[in-house]
């Protein structure tokens, strides 16, 4: 597995990542990272395989995508698959437009920045591929969260909305861990984090081997 590095963490370690995990240190929790070689060019394909390998037949993947623009392609794919989705929008600040290439000809003006968040669930590989295309969005704060669960995780949309807010400490709440089989975080181009109180290390390593095999790594 030279192209991928697998590492394990504990909830008591100093927070060196861009989020924290709210979980009692006295209770078992699997928290791992799957990081590809920086030169690996199959990140989205790898992510698709990894997420689908974590998905039992009777479960769904719940996800959220935050963008400044309307994610029309993703909504089109969801609609074509008969998948329902919800949207939320709020103003998170302002930005200057009109400056840059022609500062002499334009004065520049401040316009509101809207954060549009789409919430949905799926069992469809093509939908997951479309979601992974948004991995570099600064509105996602460069993290894409996926929740694998047999039923809709309690308050997950509310928790994810807080997770996407800029300037606040981001945490994976215990309620999300309790109500999910596992949580997968796509960490921009740096790989994937995996959090679960139900999946064993042996099961996770089997999933990882399946992912490696499918991508010929």
Would you give an account of this structure?
Helices cover 25% and strands 32% of the residues. The chain is α+β, with helices and mostly antiparallel strands. The chain has one domain. A hairpin with a 4-residue loop joins strand 9 and strand 10.
Question: Helices, strands, pairings?
Answer:
Blueprint: E1 4-9, E2 20-21, E3 30-36, H1 43-53, E4 60-67, H2 72-80, E5 85-97, E6 109-122, H3 125-132, E7 143-149, H4 156-163, E8 171-172, H5 174-178, E9 182-187, E10 192-196, H6 201-214
Parallel strand pairs: 2-8
Antiparallel strand pairs: 1-3, 3-10, 4-6, 4-7, 5-6, 7-9, 9-10
Could you provide a short overview of the structure?
The chain has 217 residues and is an alpha+beta fold.
The SSE order reads EEEHEHEEHEHEHEEH
Cα-atom Rg, whole angstroms?
A: 18 Å
Helix content: 25-40%
Distance from first to last alpha carbon = 7 Å
Count the strands?
A: 10
- By DSSP (H or I, 4+ residues per run), the number of helices equals 6
Described by the principal axes of the CA atoms, the overall outline is: globular
Mean pLDDT over all positions: 83
Strand order of the largest sheet: 1-3-10-9-7-4-6-5
**What is the count of distinct domains?**
1
What structural class do helix, strand and pairing data support? Answer: alpha+beta
Question: Biggest sheet, in brief?
Answer: 8 strands, antiparallel
* Fraction in beta strands: 25-35%
Please describe the structure with a list of short key phrases separated by commas or semicolons:
217 residues; alpha+beta; eight-stranded antiparallel β-sheet; two-stranded parallel sheet; 32% strand
